[in-house]
Amino acid sequence: MEKIERKAYRYGLVGRQIGYSFSKGYFTEKFKEMALHDHSYENFDLESIEEFESIVGNTTTIKGLNVTIPYKESILPYLSKIDEKAAKIGAVNTIKVVQEGLIGYNTDAFGFQNSLLPFLKKHHSKALILGTGGASKAVAFALNELGIENIKVSRNPNTGELGYHELTEETLIAHTVLVNCTPLGTHPAILEKPDIPYQHLNRDHLLFDLIYNPKKTSFLAEGALRGAAICNGLRMLELQAEKAWEIWNSEG
Asked: What does pTM read for this prediction?
């Protein structure tokens, strides 16, 4: 893990291979703008979730943590309490450190739902969620709250899911919202994209990619080429980060 000046109020991101971290840059700038000189944000890059205990076990200065791929689900056993919404989702991306222990929350659903809303039209009634990890659970929860039917697509589909090989023209036409919850297309592997039949996309489609770097992934570019509306994950990240900050600073 990186070496960083230890401040009185420490925050950080738990994940694997997170040198690209949006969160660190965002909160470091936020602390600077707010003149919070006794606050710091750092990356906790863990090879396995078992290393997590060493982060919070020997310090009283850590006040809050964000959690990213691949630990949004495997972090759950390490928490003292899980917020009701996060428990329903089954994934945590925000942790508040209190005297009694660690409380898990999910702000991904909030960020996704509020960044998606401006793009929605009446015909956006069914969605395909590409990927089945922790982020996909928050996306499914948010879509359900919006009344948008959804189904997950996986390389190894379980009951109630679709395999990529099952995506036909009929399926694509029926599902006008596509959400990429996989890491495919993230910098530097910017040519990668989910294996779907892009030729069946049209102007009725809305493509949302949780990736923000690059701004226009290959997935989004395929949609834009066919007239679809597109949105990357930057606004979602900003919204979930601000929600996390609100949680960290709330009473109780």
From this structure: 0.92
